[in-house]
Amino acid sequence: MLATRTLLSKQTLAVLSRQPACFVHHGDYGNWGNTNVAVVFSGCGWWDGTDVHEGVTMYHLSRNGARFQMFSPNQQQMHVMDHMRKQPGSGENNMMTESARFSHGQGMMQMQDLAKLDVNSFDAVIFPGGHGITKNSSFVKDGKDCKLHNDVERVLKDFHRSRKPILASMAPMLACRVLPGIEVTMGYERDDNTRWGNWPHTTIVQAIKSMGARHNVREPYEAYVDEKNKVVSTPTFMWETEYHYHYIFDGIGNMVKHVMRMSTK
């Protein structure tokens, strides 16, 4: 009997040792693989698309036991920026092609056309931030009266109508434009400079308040939850810092944890 138990223990340990770390350790909410999230990109790069740092959204989803699929509008973007010179450069300017830089392998890690996103196939949707949010809508030109890409507007309205969570980091302005009366955070409402960082994009806060949204002040590492509308937001790079990127990383993690809680079946 003892020999049999020892053999079974060795076999069990052998099986566990061959599993990825996530088999042994997963997040705080829900069952492994039970939540399916759509992640919508708007290019690749802070100045013209989705911020590459905000791609950590996918890390937090994985860490908390979610499956995800990447999407992007299949259309021309405003421009591709030379991020060294901070001015428009030459090169491919299709938003989906640029967003595919986030792809890695096949399946869920392959970029899909946003036109194919069906709300019935997902439990939540995330719009990571970056200046592509403002440039690939008409916000730069029209401000609070901006028009969104047709599929972006459709997806936001579909998830809201279906009572499924919407996450946004710098991208709350998209939701505020088509879902009046929601509550979000984009950080501070004025540029309070400190030795830790500053808030140089507060004009966007004023714009979303003009759209009819209620703004709530939060720190970079915090998330705000509008439980009624199931909208979760965090400031991310509305705050600029030279050394404390981990606060932004933590804010995205807190946002994802709230969505996992709200999406748990």
Automatic annotation (TrEMBL):
What organism does this protein naturally occur in?
Answer: Seriola dumerili
Q: Name one GO cellular component term.
A: mitochondrion
Transmembrane residue ranges = none
Protein known as: Glutamine amidotransferase class 1 domain containing 3, like
| UniProt record, GO biological process | mitochondrion organization
Q: Which Gene3D superfamilies match?
A: 3.40.50.880
Please, which domain of life does this record's source organism belong to? Answer: Eukaryota
Query: PANTHER family of this UniProt entry?
Result: ES1 PROTEIN HOMOLOG, MITOCHONDRIAL, ES1 PROTEIN, MITOCHONDRIAL
